[in-house]
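Continuing the series of single-chain predictions for the mutant panel. This is the parent chain; the variants come on the following pages.
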Amino acid sequence: MTTPRVLAFAGSLRAGSYNRKLLRIAASCAREAGGDVTELDLRDYPLPVFDEDLEARDGMPDSGQRLKDMFLGHGGLILSCPEYNSSITAALKNALDWVSRQAPGEPAFAPFAGKVVGLLSASPGALGGLRGLVHVRAILGNLQMVVLPQQVAVVRAHEAFTEEGGLRDAKVGELVRSLATAVVRSTERLAG
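Parent structure:
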Protein backbone atom coordinates (compact mmCIF):
# COMPACT_ATOMS: atom_id res chain seq x y z
CA MET A 1 0.00 0.00 0.00
CA THR A 2 1.32 3.45 -0.85
CA THR A 3 1.95 6.07 1.80
CA PRO A 4 -0.95 8.54 1.96
CA ARG A 5 0.09 11.96 0.69
CA VAL A 6 -1.33 14.86 2.70
CA LEU A 7 -1.09 18.56 1.85
CA ALA A 8 -1.11 20.86 4.88
CA PHE A 9 -1.41 24.64 5.03
CA ALA A 10 -2.94 27.54 6.91
CA GLY A 11 -5.39 29.98 5.39
CA SER A 12 -3.42 32.92 6.79
CA LEU A 13 -0.70 35.09 5.29
CA ARG A 14 0.39 36.57 8.64
CA ALA A 15 3.95 35.67 9.67
CA GLY A 16 3.02 35.10 13.32
CA SER A 17 -0.22 33.26 12.53
CA TYR A 18 -1.67 31.09 15.30
CA ASN A 19 -3.13 28.91 12.58
CA ARG A 20 0.29 28.32 11.07
CA LYS A 21 1.53 27.24 14.51
CA LEU A 22 -1.42 24.88 14.87
CA LEU A 23 -0.86 23.55 11.35
CA ARG A 24 2.76 22.64 12.13
CA ILE A 25 1.60 20.57 15.10
CA ALA A 26 -1.06 18.80 13.03
CA ALA A 27 1.41 18.13 10.19
CA SER A 28 3.86 16.60 12.64
CA CYS A 29 1.09 14.37 14.04
CA ALA A 30 0.13 13.29 10.51
CA ARG A 31 3.74 12.32 9.81
CA GLU A 32 3.83 10.29 13.02
CA ALA A 33 0.66 8.53 11.83
CA GLY A 34 2.46 7.48 8.63
CA GLY A 35 1.48 10.25 6.23
CA ASP A 36 3.77 11.78 3.62
CA VAL A 37 3.01 15.40 4.51
CA THR A 38 3.83 18.45 2.41
CA GLU A 39 3.50 21.76 4.25
CA LEU A 40 3.10 24.88 2.19
CA ASP A 41 2.76 28.58 2.88
CA LEU A 42 0.19 30.53 0.84
CA ARG A 43 2.63 33.46 0.77
CA ASP A 44 4.79 31.35 -1.58
CA TYR A 45 1.88 31.25 -4.05
CA PRO A 46 0.94 34.90 -4.63
CA LEU A 47 -2.24 35.20 -6.64
CA PRO A 48 -4.24 38.09 -8.07
CA VAL A 49 -7.86 38.28 -6.98
CA PHE A 50 -9.72 35.77 -9.13
CA ASP A 51 -11.21 37.44 -12.20
CA GLU A 52 -12.48 35.52 -15.24
CA ASP A 53 -11.47 38.38 -17.55
CA LEU A 54 -7.92 38.19 -16.21
CA GLU A 55 -7.95 34.40 -16.62
CA ALA A 56 -9.25 34.67 -20.20
CA ARG A 57 -6.57 37.23 -21.07
CA ASP A 58 -3.55 35.77 -19.25
CA GLY A 59 -4.50 32.20 -18.37
CA MET A 60 -3.81 30.56 -15.04
CA PRO A 61 -1.07 32.39 -13.09
CA ASP A 62 2.09 30.31 -12.63
CA SER A 63 1.65 30.33 -8.86
CA GLY A 64 -1.96 29.20 -9.29
CA GLN A 65 -0.88 26.26 -11.45
CA ARG A 66 1.84 25.31 -8.98
CA LEU A 67 -0.71 25.37 -6.16
CA LYS A 68 -3.19 23.35 -8.20
CA ASP A 69 -0.49 20.79 -8.96
CA MET A 70 0.10 20.45 -5.21
CA PHE A 71 -3.60 19.68 -4.70
CA LEU A 72 -3.62 17.22 -7.59
CA GLY A 73 -0.60 15.40 -6.16
CA HIS A 74 -2.08 14.77 -2.71
CA GLY A 75 -4.99 12.62 -1.57
CA GLY A 76 -5.65 14.38 1.71
CA LEU A 77 -5.61 17.86 3.16
CA ILE A 78 -5.13 19.38 6.59
CA LEU A 79 -6.28 22.98 6.69
CA SER A 80 -5.95 25.41 9.59
CA CYS A 81 -8.32 28.32 9.03
CA PRO A 82 -8.33 31.73 10.67
CA GLU A 83 -11.70 33.36 11.13
CA TYR A 84 -12.02 36.83 9.63
CA ASN A 85 -15.30 38.59 10.40
CA SER A 86 -16.96 35.26 11.22
CA SER A 87 -15.94 33.70 7.90
CA ILE A 88 -13.16 32.43 5.64
CA THR A 89 -10.09 34.53 4.84
CA ALA A 90 -9.85 36.24 1.47
CA ALA A 91 -6.47 34.56 0.84
CA LEU A 92 -7.88 31.07 1.36
CA LYS A 93 -11.03 31.70 -0.71
CA ASN A 94 -8.99 33.19 -3.54
CA ALA A 95 -6.60 30.22 -3.53
CA LEU A 96 -9.51 27.77 -3.67
CA ASP A 97 -11.13 29.76 -6.49
CA TRP A 98 -7.98 29.60 -8.63
CA VAL A 99 -7.27 25.92 -7.86
CA SER A 100 -10.85 25.01 -8.80
CA ARG A 101 -10.49 26.28 -12.37
CA GLN A 102 -11.04 23.38 -14.75
CA ALA A 103 -8.42 22.84 -17.45
CA PRO A 104 -9.58 21.55 -20.87
CA GLY A 105 -10.26 17.82 -20.67
CA GLU A 106 -9.92 17.78 -16.89
CA PRO A 107 -12.73 16.30 -14.77
CA ALA A 108 -14.69 18.83 -12.73
CA PHE A 109 -13.26 19.45 -9.26
CA ALA A 110 -10.24 17.23 -10.03
CA PRO A 111 -8.01 18.86 -7.37
CA PHE A 112 -10.65 18.24 -4.69
CA ALA A 113 -13.21 15.53 -5.53
CA GLY A 114 -13.20 12.54 -3.19
CA LYS A 115 -10.22 13.76 -1.19
CA VAL A 116 -10.23 13.85 2.60
CA VAL A 117 -9.85 17.11 4.52
CA GLY A 118 -9.46 17.76 8.23
CA LEU A 119 -10.21 21.24 9.55
CA LEU A 120 -8.65 23.17 12.41
CA SER A 121 -8.77 26.75 13.57
CA ALA A 122 -7.18 28.93 16.20
CA SER A 123 -8.40 32.30 17.39
CA PRO A 124 -7.87 34.59 20.39
CA GLY A 125 -11.66 34.56 20.83
CA ALA A 126 -13.82 32.28 22.94
CA LEU A 127 -15.04 30.20 19.96
CA GLY A 128 -11.63 29.45 18.48
CA GLY A 129 -12.66 30.24 14.91
CA LEU A 130 -15.65 27.87 14.77
CA ARG A 131 -17.85 30.33 12.85
CA GLY A 132 -15.35 30.47 10.01
CA LEU A 133 -15.08 26.68 9.86
CA VAL A 134 -18.79 26.47 9.06
CA HIS A 135 -18.15 28.38 5.83
CA VAL A 136 -14.95 26.48 5.00
CA ARG A 137 -16.80 23.18 5.51
CA ALA A 138 -19.59 24.27 3.15
CA ILE A 139 -17.19 25.41 0.42
CA LEU A 140 -15.06 22.26 0.55
CA GLY A 141 -18.14 20.04 0.61
CA ASN A 142 -19.41 21.78 -2.52
CA LEU A 143 -16.02 21.11 -4.11
CA GLN A 144 -16.81 17.43 -3.46
CA MET A 145 -14.23 16.89 -0.73
CA VAL A 146 -14.83 14.44 2.10
CA VAL A 147 -14.79 16.81 5.08
CA LEU A 148 -14.21 14.85 8.28
CA PRO A 149 -16.91 15.46 10.89
CA GLN A 150 -14.41 16.04 13.69
CA GLN A 151 -12.66 19.41 13.82
CA VAL A 152 -10.50 21.28 16.30
CA ALA A 153 -10.92 24.92 17.35
CA VAL A 154 -8.26 26.33 19.67
CA VAL A 155 -9.68 29.11 21.84
CA ARG A 156 -7.62 31.95 23.35
CA ALA A 157 -4.88 31.15 20.83
CA HIS A 158 -2.69 33.98 22.11
CA GLU A 159 -2.26 31.91 25.31
CA ALA A 160 -2.49 28.39 23.81
CA PHE A 161 1.07 27.82 22.56
CA THR A 162 4.32 27.22 24.41
CA GLU A 163 7.52 29.10 23.55
CA GLU A 164 8.65 25.95 21.70
CA GLY A 165 5.51 25.97 19.52
CA GLY A 166 3.57 23.18 21.24
CA LEU A 167 0.13 23.35 22.76
CA ARG A 168 -0.16 24.05 26.48
CA ASP A 169 -3.33 21.97 26.88
CA ALA A 170 -2.58 18.25 26.44
CA LYS A 171 -6.26 17.49 25.77
CA VAL A 172 -6.29 19.90 22.83
CA GLY A 173 -3.05 18.32 21.62
CA GLU A 174 -4.73 14.91 21.64
CA LEU A 175 -7.66 16.28 19.62
CA VAL A 176 -5.20 17.61 17.02
CA ARG A 177 -3.39 14.26 16.95
CA SER A 178 -6.69 12.40 16.53
CA LEU A 179 -7.76 14.64 13.64
CA ALA A 180 -4.40 14.39 11.87
CA THR A 181 -4.40 10.60 12.27
CA ALA A 182 -7.97 10.43 10.92
CA VAL A 183 -6.90 12.37 7.81
CA VAL A 184 -4.03 9.95 7.18
CA ARG A 185 -6.12 6.82 7.81
CA SER A 186 -9.07 8.05 5.74
CA THR A 187 -6.80 9.10 2.87
CA GLU A 188 -5.20 5.66 2.97
CA ARG A 189 -8.59 3.89 2.90
CA LEU A 190 -9.95 5.99 0.04
CA ALA A 191 -6.80 5.48 -2.02
CA GLY A 192 -6.91 1.68 -1.50
